[in-house]
Design goal:
The complex is a heterodimer.
Chain A (H helix, E strand, L loop, with lengths): L2 E12 L36 E2 H13 L7 E2 L1 E5 L9 E5 L8 E6 L5 E13 L3 E3 L6 E5 L6 E7 L6 H18 L11 E11 L9 E6 L2 H20 L7 E6 L4 E7 L9 E2 L6 E2 L2 H8 L6 H12 L3 H7 L3 H14 L3 H18 L11 H12 L5 H12 L5 H8 L7 H14 L1 H8 L5 H12 L6 H11 L6
Parallel strand pairs in A: 12-13
Antiparallel strand pairs in A: 1-10, 1-11, 3-16, 4-5, 4-15, 6-7, 7-10, 8-9, 11-12, 13-14
Chain B lengths: L4 H10 L6 H22 L19 E2 L9 H4 L6 E2 L2 E5 L6
Antiparallel strand pairs in B: 2-3
Classes of the chains: A alpha+beta, B alpha+beta.
């Protein structure tokens, strides 16, 4: 049978605040165990949560960026379950009245098509601590530094139809939260985590099959692999007359498979109820509009603008806007050159991206600044240096030898365009290669390239190639021409 | 509405309290009248009434995003039965119980 996958994602984005959602303890990553766990995070008796305004601002900002309804009144609820990394015995979350209501996000697929993915809701909650099962014989170690770190859980509609679409959606969320500056998107550190709900139904059917939930997948690559595995597993099960059990499954990237973790507890087992320690969050239009006024240009709008304003291809615009800092860098280069959008794009996506990649750097830590790169490109545009030698200059700049003009001067790389100087070299080449000249004159036209090459060699690549061609044609008119 | 024993045991498990048959019989009797009261509440006409999330008619106040808590791990861990390398130690747990 032809099965249609139905996929929805729940993405947990850790909000980029200094302090926790309900306490004034630090959210710094990588601290020694439990030094950032204060009495509120530890669930000490009598402690009361106090809401961090920045967390609310960030959630509203996300909601506005996905055209969602912002709830004028939202409520925190207790989600009750027992686990040692949850000291209070409940997680403070939002249930019936989340801060962000229905919205949508447009994703770009590899084939160039766009698809609108519904966002059901996004709600605020606190993270739990971390359990370390391996290190201690017969015991589990608990680190509660992460307890109380603010999370925005972004729940999509079951609008995704393949692992590829799910990957594209996750990337779009990743790009968006980084543009907004509300999450660092660092997946290795768990700043962005994803659970995927996957089910199959006969193509054409309107109803949904039984779904499984794949937990805590922390890379774009793994989310696609895990979903592909789960689609194949469910299809095999259904084809052989079996049924899918509603359960939580863990993805094992080493074995490329998902494994059953536990039967999913029914929603009402969590016994959600409004947290009596927290009052409803009420947001007025002034608060929301003030945040709306600070929204940056969003990734999709910027991509489209780069295409229309600079004439870039959809691909180039997509690469350059994947990170806000990269797009800022690119536009700074173009601005200081007063144009040359394509040349700038080629260098930013070519030499610069390769150099960053080679050293594991981000655009923010690039060894060459946007004005620095623009200075180099200016030399190319003005014909003072060839594109080939510009790469050598780029490497020297990268190694810290200074700005483009200084490197060019120091290394004597300035392009030779002076006809007199070039004619001198050309005449030397002609004089030194009598037999080739004779062959050329006898009709072996291909030797023209040989002479160009000799001139370039004599000038160590500095001769202006267009000038060399023009002058050579004067000195050695085409045979028979 | 009577409380059946399966539902009671389920609640006992969620609340992590051990309930045996005797407990269940006694609790079933006590919970019956409480549920009857809830049933009575259900009969009230609440059409158009906004669900109450808090008894106080106030909105949540918010604090600035500032770190004012200082690390105080040693003192806070003094009442933990077992700690090692700064971690709280608990009986081994694997993937929920």
């Amino acid at each position: 049978m032809d099965w249609e996958p139905v996929i929805g994602l729940e993405i947990h984005a850790q909000l980029l605040t200094r302090s926790k959602i309900f306490s004034a303890a630090s959210t710094a990553f990588g601290a020694e165990p439990n030094v950032n766990a204060c009495p509120i995070d530890l669930g000490y008796p009598g402690m009361l949560p106090v809401l961090n305004r920045e967390v609310v601002r960030m959630a509203v900002m996300f909601g506005l960026a996905v055209d969602a309804e912002i709830a004028p009144r939202s409520v925190f609820a207790r989600k009750n379950y027992f686990y040692p990394d949850l000291p209070k015995g409940y997680q403070i979350s939002q249930y019936e009245l989340p801060i962000v209501g229905p919205g949508r996000l447009t994703i770009s697929l590899e084939d160039g098509h766009e698809k609108v993915i519904g966002i059901t809701r996004a709600h605020l909650e606190e993270d739990a601590g971390k359990s370390l099962h391996e290190a201690f014989d017969g015991s589990t170690g608990i680190d509660l530094n992460r307890a109380g770190v603010p999370l925005l859980e972004i729940v999509s509609e079951p609008d995704l139809r393949s692992a590829r679409e799910a990957g594209a959606y996750m990337k779009a969320i990743h790009t968006l939260v980084r543009y907004l500056g509300i999450c660092d998107g660092n997946m290795q550190e768990g700043s962005l985590r994803c659970d995927a709900n996957v089910s199959l139904r006969p193509r054409g059917s309107r109803s949904f099959g039984t779904r499984t939930e794949i937990k805590n997948v922390n890379s774009f690559h793994f989310i696609e692999q895990a979903i592909d595995y789960e689609i194949a597993r469910q299809a095999d099960l259904l084809e052989s007359g079996g049924t899918v059990v509603q359960e939580t499954r863990l993805y094992d990237p080493e074995r490329h498979e998902t494994r059953s973790m536990r039967a999913k507890e029914e929603a009402n087992d969590y016994r959600y109820f409004p947290d009596p320690d927290l009052l409803p969050v009420e947001l007025d239009a002034a608060f929301i509009n003030a945040i709306r006024a600070t929204l940056p240009e969003l990734p999709r709008a910027r991509r489209e603008r780069l295409q229309t304003q600079y004439g870039l291809s959809a691909y180039d615009a997509g690469v350059l806007t994947a990170e806000r800092e990269l797009a800022d860098y690119y536009e700074a280069v173009v601005e200081s050159l007063g144009g040359e959008a394509k040349l700038s794009a080629n260098w930013v996506m070519g030499e610069l991206a390769a150099a960053l990649n080679r050293e594991g750097l981000t655009i923010g830590t690039s060894r060459i600044s946007a004005p620095g790169l623009a200075g180099l490109l200016r030399q190319i545009i003005d014909g003072l240096i060839s594109g080939k030698l510009a790469k050598e200059v780029f490497e020297a700049m990268w190694a810290g030898e200074g700005e483009a003009d200084a490197v060019i001067k120091k290394r004597g790389l300035r392009q030779i365009s002076d006809p007199e100087a070039l004619v001198r070299v050309i005449d030397e080449v002609i004089a030194a290669n009598p037999s080739q000249v004779a062959q050329y004159k006898a009709g072996k036209e291909k030797l023209f390239g040989y002479f160009v090459g000799q001139v370039m060699k004599q000038t160590r690549g500095r001769a202006n190639p267009a000038e060399v061609n023009r002058l050579l044609k004067q000195r050695l008119p085409p045979p028979g021409g | 509405m009577a409380f059946d024993i399966v539902a009671l045991k389920h609640l006992g498990r969620l609340a992590r309290i051990g309930l045996d048959e005797t407990d269940c019989a006694a609790l079933g009797g006590e919970l019956g009248p409480i549920l009857a009261l809830v049933d009575q509440l259900r009969e009230a006409d609440v059409e158009g009434v906004v669900p109450m999330a808090h008894p106080l008619a106030l909105a949540q106040r918010m604090r600035p995003d500032e770190v004012t808590e200082k690390p105080d791990r040693d003192r806070l861990q003094r009442n933990a039965p077992q700690v090692r390398d700064g971690l709280y130690l608990v009986p081994r747990v694997i993937n929920g119980a």
